Amino acid sequence: MTDRSSSQRLSTPRTSRLPGLRMDPDALGRFTEGVARFFGTGRYLAIQTVLVVGWILLNVYAVSLKWDPYPFILLNLAFSTQAAYAAPLILLAQNRQENRDRVSLDEDRRRAAQTKADTEYLARELASLRLAVGEVATRDYLHHELERVRELLEEMRPESDLAGPESAPARSALPRDERA
Questions:
Q1: CA–centroid distance for 19 within its chain
Q2: 20 is a domain residue
């Protein structure tokens, strides 16, 4: 072996030969949320109340089964252990919920911005349509203008045309080019 290969081997970290505990962080998070949800239910409170009352009754009245006499030190130890595990589990569940809320809030903000942009676009389109409709000639306007044109044409018509169709020479229905 050369010095170079041994120095390269020493500078490269080696994986552990011991079997490692690999845990999916989401699985742990789901578990902690489940436990935290269970701690907040009436079912959990009822079960814990029954266990504590049973523990106390057995240790006070069952003379032969006294495994935890009156100060109930073992029961206190169980409560302390429960509190020691419950608090971090609840905090982990709160952190996961906070992350979900943050993602949801970001998505809501993005959606609100998109909705606002769409609304502004539609408002601009509606305003342009209103302007375009305002410039369109209506039926009453066209009728009025045609009446004015007819009146102007009648004013411009010579006196001989006003006498009637009997006094005017008969005109052919064919255009002038075809009369010849």
A1: 43
A2: no
Torsion of the alpha carbons at 59, 60, 63 and 64, rounded to the nearest 10? -10
Type of residue at 74: L
Name the token pair of 113: 């911005």
CB atoms within 10 A of CB 32: 19
Residue type present at position 122: L
pTM of this structure: 0.50
Task: Judge contact between 68 and 54, C-beta under 8 A.
Answer: no
Total tally of structural domains belonging to the chain: 1
The domain containing residue 34 runs over which residues? 25-139
What count of Cα atoms within 13 Å lies in the side-chain half-sphere of residue 165? 2
Residue 99 lies in a domain: yes
Q: Is residue 110 part of a domain?
A: yes
**Mind giving me the DSSP string for 33-82?**
HHHHHHHTSHHHHHHHHHHHHHHHHHHHH-GGG-SS-TT-HHHHHHHHHH
pLDDT per residue as tens digits for the range 73-117: 999 999 999 999 999 988 988 999 999 999 999 999 999 999 999
- Could you report the per-residue pLDDT of 4-50, keeping only the tens digit for each? 565 566 777 777 777 777 778 788 888 888 988 998 899 999 999 99
Nearest to 29 by CA among 81, 87, 84, 91: 91
